[in-house]
Prior knowledge:
Layout: E1 3-12, E2 16-19, H1 20-27, H2 33-40, E3 44-47, H3 54-69, E4 78-82, H4 93-100, E5 107-111, H5 117-130, E6 136-143, H6 154-157, E7 163-172, E8 181-189, E9 197-200, E10 203-206, H7 208-229, E11 239-242, H8 247-257, H9 268-271, H10 278-288, E12 297-304, E13 308-315
Parallel strand pairs: 4-5, 4-6, 11-12
Antiparallel strand pairs: 1-7, 2-3, 6-7, 8-13, 9-10, 12-13
Bound molecules: coenzyme A.
Catalytic activity: malonyl-[ACP] + acetyl-CoA + H(+) = 3-oxobutanoyl-[ACP] + CO2 + CoA
Domain Beta-ketoacyl-[acyl-carrier-protein] synthase III C-terminal: 227-315
GO molecular function: 3-oxoacyl-[acyl-carrier-protein] synthase activity; beta-ketoacyl-acyl-carrier-protein synthase III activity
Amino acid sequence: MVRSVIAGTGGYLPARSLTNDELAAEFNLDTSDAWISERTGIRRRHIAAPGESTADMAAAAAREALAQAGADASEVDAIILATATPDSAFPSTATRVQEKLGIHKGFSFDISAACTGFVYALGVADAMIRAGQCRSALVIGAEAFTRILDWTDRGTCVLFGDGAGAVLLRATEEEGPASRAILSTHLHSDGRHGDILQVEGGLVRMAGREVFRHAVSKLASAVDEALAANGLDKSDVQWLVPHQANLRIIDAMGRKLGLPSERVVVTVDRHANTSAASIPLALAEARRDGRIQPGDLVLMEAIGGGLTWGAALARF
Ligand code: COA
């Protein structure tokens, strides 16, 4: 049986980073570091430079993922890129990345699932590798999210940041519960709740309380579903790498799994919510600093506009 394994991870953050106080001063916001950090855990975020595109950031993250896997770009059969902030309707941002990496074969396309985009892209890429449509795939989450923020709306503009993360998936024929592979992905959406988190007139609008309420219950059920599908118990999970929207939601999921806080990868304090980029950025950080080791069981989960939500289990 063919499955896919995460062979490399990479991340990219724009050079410019603003603290809550710097952001408030720059955009003349009636807010405070205390309000933002107590409710969300966010202390700073990166902001893309003028002219720095979603594809630029994605390509930088992809290059690190390739290097970590010891792979040449010519190995890549497919690029699947999740973003809510594509550089244009077409060409897709994935195809722009393909060109930047000098890849002129295979296929590339974007996925739109807001903050759940990376889990969706991982699910699609894993299914395509299992089906034999490609042998290796770059799965990327990349966002220039600060370009769709309303800087007069303090309820949303303090929450998001820019960046990109990537993983290289390779086909593997290894079998058995201890083998390195993506074990399963679980994707959901429910358009009835589309209006609580949406882009309207080009800018993000959110009913924060409503989103919070859905997040805790839907993430919990996706996590239960992923564990049950693999006959695993929560005590089998070595790392939780959650979507990074809000530290209170992240802590609630860590408690649900009975994981000590040092087993939960957190970047929201420094990155804020980078939407589809948040999980692969967190994976890249935890692989780079040696926390996640080959063989470790990693649980990922995310929720975002749509509503969309989902979970993935992978043995690194
Ligand atoms: N600084 C200061 N005050 C702010 C503020 C800010 N940045 N943003 C909102 N407020 C004010 C509101 O105006 C409101 O004031 P009022 O009571 O005078 O009207 C008050 O704070 C409470 O607003 P509310 O939106 O109810 O706050 P909250 O406690 O729900 O916290 C969030 C807001 C956004 C932090 C919280 O709802 C949240 O994290 N939700 C989940 C969001 C999320 O994860 N989204 C991404 C999913 S991918």
